[in-house]
Design a protein that fits this description.
Order of helices and strands: HHHHHHHHHHHHHHHHHHH
Distance between the termini: 68 Å
Largest sheet: none
Number of strands: 0
Length: 432
């Protein structure tokens, strides 16, 4: 918080009780005129009484004179007291006057210590937080659809700004340093062995074998002419074509028949052998370091391939664009989900007493921890800020803020002095 913020003159009616500084200065001038007017009035009455008493004035004039005299004394004394707070009376550097300008720094230090000792303490804050019921108040606020929508807008804007700030290179570096690094550190062989165990237990390896065999059968059927041509190219020139045809038909039909047999017979010997080999390979991955090293090498080759980096960059670019679009659109699924989540949390905080208790406990512990860690800094901030204020400007601002009320002290002193003077004079006349 800057010094300017703490010292600037409030210009809105909401500041300092709904009055601007101009209005307060006008009120201060008015009350000074009233208080000074009473002093002048008492002085005029006193002078009139003095002159009157020289010409055989009635007895009651003495009472009026004593009243006016004491009233002037009271008015002057309180004028001196009020003025001495802000400046030297009549510019005379009387000791213990201009208190606020001279004691500004010590007042700031005392204010910081006062706030620290009386407000920034665990028991005070804890009691206040419990009285307020922060979690329920928060629940009531965010449980309102309009407030939830506002918070959703703020959340969406924060996401949008955050996504814009994050550069593609930063994300790529984070991806490489966090995700890819962790993947490289993972021992892939036991994981692959476990996946094989799961596949074998569910019979999925046999389904994969069936799908592969059918794929091979279809491939051979679709490329029958190509395979026949390849056989002709490899066959000696002296072998007649019809012989090649016979040989090809027998080979092609034999392979297709074998594939069909294995595909359709779940108890086929090849399937049994395949099951055994798969289980053996899974066990080999767990026990054979050489097999594990081969899997690790394959993993590293895949991760180091340029296509993987291009994929991660493209995935982030696409995800970033979608996040920005959804965050900016109040009707997007993301924003609707955020709004509904906020409202649901609000309702839970209102209705769930156990959640309220836990949330209040979290808030209380968090606030007390922050205050305990930074209460000295807060006190230093207050005292340091006050110390940096301009002395005369500070005095004028404080006088503008409270000076009007202090003028009532002068008025009261004038009135009380008059009454006291009247009482003393009356008593002296009665005794005399």
């Amino acid at each position: 918080m800057s010094i300017d913020v703490l010292t600037r003159t409030p210009t809105t009616p909401e500041s300092f009780g709904g009055l601007t500084d101009d209005e307060r200065r006008a009120g201060l001038r008015k009350m000074k005129m009233v208080a000074t007017g009473l002093l002048v009035f008492a002085a005029i009455v006193f002078v009139i009484c003095v002159i009157w008493q020289r010409n055989d004035a009635p007895g009651w004039v003495g009472y009026v004179k004593a009243t006016a005299e004491a009233s002037m004394v009271g008015a002057l004394a309180d004028w001196f007291a009020v003025t001495a707070l802000f400046r030297h009376p009549m510019g005379i550097p009387i000791p213990h006057t201009a208190i606020i300008p001279n004691k500004k720094d010590s007042l700031g230090s005392s204010l910081g210590e006062f706030v620290q000792g009386n407000f920034l303490t665990g028991p005070v804050l804890a009691e206040k937080l419990r009285q307020v019921g922060v979690s329920q108040k928060v629940g009531e606020y965010i449980g309102d659809s309009e407030n939830a929508r506002k918070l959703g807008n703020n959340f969406g804007h924060a996401i949008e700004v955050g996504a814009e700030i994050m550069t593609d290179d930063d994300v790529q570096d984070a991806f490489d340093n966090i995700i890819m690094k962790r993947v490289r550190q993972v021992d892939a062989a036991p994981i692959l062995a476990k996946l094989i165990d799961v596949a074998v237990e569910g019979g999925n390896h046999q389904h994969m074998m069936t799908a592969a065999l059918k794929g091979i059968s279809k491939f051979m059927h679709d490329n029958r002419a190509v395979l026949r041509l390849k056989l002709a190219q490899e066959s000696p020139d002296w072998v007649p074509s019809f012989v090649d045809d016979k040989i090809f038909e027998r080979m092609f039909n034999g392979v297709q028949s074998f594939i069909d047999d294995v595909s359709n017979d779940e108890q086929h010997a090849m399937r049994t052998q395949f099951d055994v080999k798969v289980r053996e390979y899974a066990e080999q991955l767990r026990t054979d370091p050489e097999a594990a090293e081969k899997i690790a090498a394959i993993r590293d080759d895949v991760l180091n391939h340029p296509a993987v980096r291009e994929w991660s960059q493209g995935a982030w670019t696409t995800l970033k664009r979608q996040i920005i679009e959804m965050a900016a659109d109040p009707e997007s699924d993301l924003r609707k989900s955020v709004d509904s989540t906020i409202m649901r949390l609000g309702r839970m905080l209102q209705e769930d007493k156990e959640l309220q208790r836990k949330a209040d406990g979290w808030i209380e512990r968090g606030v007390l921890y922050i205050v305990d860690q930074y209460k000295d800094d807060i006190a230093d901030l207050i005292s340091g800020t006050v110390a940096r204020w301009d002395t005369q400007d500070t005095s004028r601002k404080i006088e503008t803020l409270v000076g009007r009320d202090l003028q009532f002290i002068r008025i009261n002193g004038t009135v009380i002095g008059a009454l006291a003077g009247l009482a003393i004079y009356t008593i002296s006349q009665l005794i005399g």
